[in-house]
Amino acid sequence: MMTGQLSIISLSILSIWFFSSHGKADTVSPWQYQTFKSATYQPPNMTIEKHGRTEPGFLFFDQTWAGTVDYAPLIMTDENELVWQGPMPAEDNTIFGLRPQTFEGKPVLTYWRGTGYGDPLGFGYGVIYLLDQSYEEIYRVTLEDSSFAVVENLTIPSWIDLHESKLTDRGSILVTAVNMTQYDLRSVGGEEDGWIADSLFYELDVKTSRVLYRWSALEHVDEIPLEGSLLPIDGLGNNRTYAWGAFHINSVDFFDDGAYLISSRYYCSIYRINRNGTVDWVLNGRSGGDFKLGPGVDFCYQHDARIRHTSEDAVIISMFNNANSPVENGTSPSTGLLLRLDLNTHEATLERKLLDSRDVIYSESQGNYQHLPGGHTLLGHGQIPKFKEYDANGSCVMTLQFGENNEVSSYRGFRLPWIGKPKTPPSVWACSSGNSTHIYMSWNGATELTGWNVYGGSNASHLQLVGSVPKKGFETTIVIGSVRYVQVEGKEGALMSRTSSVVPVNATC
Ligand SMILES: *[C@@H]1O[C@H](CO)[C@@H](O)[C@H](O)[C@H]1NC(C)=O
Ligand SMILES: *[C@@H]1O[C@H](CO)[C@@H](O)[C@H](O)[C@H]1NC(C)=O
Ligand SMILES: *[C@@H]1O[C@H](CO)[C@@H](O)[C@H](O)[C@H]1NC(C)=O
Ligand SMILES: *[C@@H]1O[C@H](CO)[C@@H](O)[C@H](O)[C@H]1NC(C)=O
Ligand SMILES: *[C@@H]1O[C@H](CO)[C@@H](O)[C@H](O)[C@H]1NC(C)=O
Ligand SMILES: *[C@@H]1O[C@H](CO)[C@@H](O)[C@H](O)[C@H]1NC(C)=O
Ligand SMILES: *[C@@H]1O[C@H](CO)[C@@H](O)[C@H](O)[C@H]1NC(C)=O
Ligand SMILES: *[C@@H]1O[C@H](CO)[C@@H](O)[C@H](O)[C@H]1NC(C)=O
Ligand SMILES: *[C@@H]1O[C@H](CO)[C@@H](O)[C@H](O)[C@H]1NC(C)=O
Fold first, then answer.
1. pLDDT tens for each residue of 321-355
2. Is residue 74 part of a domain?
3. What's the gap in Å between 401 CA and the centre of ligand 1?
4. What residue range is the signal peptide (predicted)?
5. How far is the CA of 235 from the centre of ligand 4 (A)?
6. What is the CA radius of gyration of the chain?
7. What is the pLDDT of residues 227-261, one digit of tens each?
8. What CATH number did the domain enclosing 433 receive?
């Protein structure tokens, strides 16, 4: 019904199909990156504007480039300092959704790693990693099912899509998956033997990857008819490589009674899925669905629909309302929304709408809405590499940018506390300049690092303490007299410490 009114997807979108296939840097980004002497990390030189008090916590994000480069996931401070640079994705690999979560009562880091494909399908095949506080892998969650049909000629180790990696409080994780499926698409203007990208979600056991729950949108077309998708079929659905990605589930959350909340990008809808698979209700951001939309309630192409609060009478839901997509963009700003759904009157009312009128953003893909413990909200703008923090009154108190618009993106972004105690040792590099030695030291991920002891000498096995210095940023420097060998010791308070290897001073500064 609404499909016909929308513009046709241009072939230029199809040509950026593979967005992570060439490894690092054959294109030079104009964005500036920080460099260090003691490590090869290259975090972005962020631009940070603060307009008020911000909440504590580090920033967690990934950097995927819609062009040719994928950079590592990062933990940084809101003062432009690197805390931890994660693994650099290998060729044909990308990393999505870095965030701290809790598993069995302990803090963990999670991220998705795999092969990603850009719009119009915008999905991936991969695995989810759980790291402990020492950044060591503790679990790897996979979805193995030989019945999945793949885009052509790929060997897929695991079918987990890149959109969701939410841990539950019951030892499981919520994920999505995409299954290219042959389907009669004549009702929406496609071919009888057409191809659709079925959109599924799963609850998997973290330790065993066992499937605890599975739901497929295509198995519920009676409740979610194909005609409801706003993604035009034009040019899509003829073969499995260019299957029609009608549903595009991009977030999964869970209710205490076992039901799930899912968000469909191209239906502009949020569904409560009963544990028995039936759609309990749908909130459509344009037509309302099972709800009457109150003043200002209007969303489309949204991401990250979350349950904020539930009661007998109401559900409060947050989301990042992109309001833009590859098929419709540039007219309505992207916003953060908090909505109250009255389950008795079936009205959806606006509790909060977050928008920075000084810097309006139109984000066609990705993004998230994170409620912070002190009442603030962090919005990740997905395709636009900016985070904005809003205070409890809805004023923007911080804007942070980490790349060129529409070039670098972070699927989601989080501000959270984190304690990291890496198993890897500190790093040191030194050079000589006349009769002095310049020493550079860092320790990737060591959030408890307070300062350094520096050892030097002319005999590698007889080094002496030559200086102590408090930690200053990611890389701390000190200048001492002439020595041939150096070693540094990172101190975590007064009691814990860890030494680097002994390195010769070979370079001239
Ligand atoms: C980072 O940006 C600041 C402010 O714009 C600038 O002074 C500094 O030189 C930049 N650093 C790098 C490494 O590009
Ligand atoms: C897939 O592999 C087959 C057989 O090797 C080849 O004929 C076909 O062109 C390949 N398709 C793509 C899209 O690469
Ligand atoms: C994937 O789709 C095929 C049909 O194309 C179907 O046979 C198979 O069961 C589906 N797999 C899953 C996990 O839904
Ligand atoms: C698949 O469909 C796309 C889009 O219509 C087309 O460009 C491509 O050539 C088709 N591929 C094959 C192998 O038929
Ligand atoms: C699922 O449960 C709901 C509510 O209890 C019920 O209305 C619906 O018919 C059930 N669906 C199936 C397929 O059993
Ligand atoms: C929407 O995005 C497409 C693809 O990037 C682009 O071709 C088109 O010009 C955009 N439309 C608007 C109104 O910005
Ligand atoms: C928020 O609004 C209240 C009431 O208008 C005011 O008292 C308070 O100072 C405001 N807080 C901030 C952070 O602006
Ligand atoms: C370094 O000290 C060790 C132990 O005292 C000694 O055996 C060695 O010869 C010394 N090396 C140099 C290069 O002086
Ligand atoms: C290094 O040499 C300069 C003169 O060349 C001298 O002033 C300085 O005290 C020396 N520093 C050390 C640490 O020996």
1. 999 999 999 999 999 999 999 999 999 999 999 99
2. yes
3. 13
4. 1-25
5. 8
6. 25
7. 999 999 998 999 988 999 999 999 999 999 999 99
8. 2.60.40
